[in-house]
Write a structure and sequence with these properties.
mainly alpha; rod-shaped
């Protein structure tokens, strides 16, 4: 059994034997833009509803202001805490620098003391140096020199 398409086939349908009944349905489909019009109108209605909802809210509730105040207070507290941490780090660095200066001064004092002790030990370890030289006796003013042996004075 074949189907007859009036748009594609221009020849008449074949003749069927008697007693045989064939039902032919012809369906014509036409394109239209009605669906697009409905979708566009529905989209416009949705857009207008969203805009109306956004602008018809009225004033913000008081809880929003309280929340903003709490957030500002929390941010200020965090800033103060950060500033305290930084000041603590600076103070710690200053204390560390003071300790380093104190250690350097102590090391310098110990080095000076050790150097003085080393000089004293070196002086004690060496034999005394005696420099002898002959010194002419001064001439007396009247021309006579008197030399007398003397004993050492205590």
């Amino acid at each position: 059994m074949t189907q007859y398409d009036p748009n594609a086939d221009r020849t008449p349908p074949p003749v069927q034997p008697v007693g045989h009944v064939e039902v032919v349905e012809t369906m014509v489909v036409r394109e239209s833009s009605t669906g697009w019009w409905i979708a566009g109108i529905l989209g416009g209605v949705v857009l207008i509803a969203v805009i109306w909802i956004l602008f018809a809210r009225g004033e913000a509730p008081a809880t929003d202001e309280a929340l903003l105040d709490a957030q500002v207070a929390a941010a200020e507290a965090q800033a103060r805490a950060d500033q305290a941490v930084i000041q603590g780090q600076v103070a710690g660095a200053q204390v560390g620098a003071d300790i380093a200066r104190s250690d350097a001064a102590r090391a310098q004092a110990e080095a000076a003391r050790a150097q003085a002790e080393a000089r004293a030990a070196e002086a004690r370890a060496q034999a005394p140096v005696v420099i002898e030289r002959e010194v002419p006796a001064p001439a007396p003013a009247d021309g006579v020199a008197e030399v007398s042996p003397t004993s050492p004075q205590p």
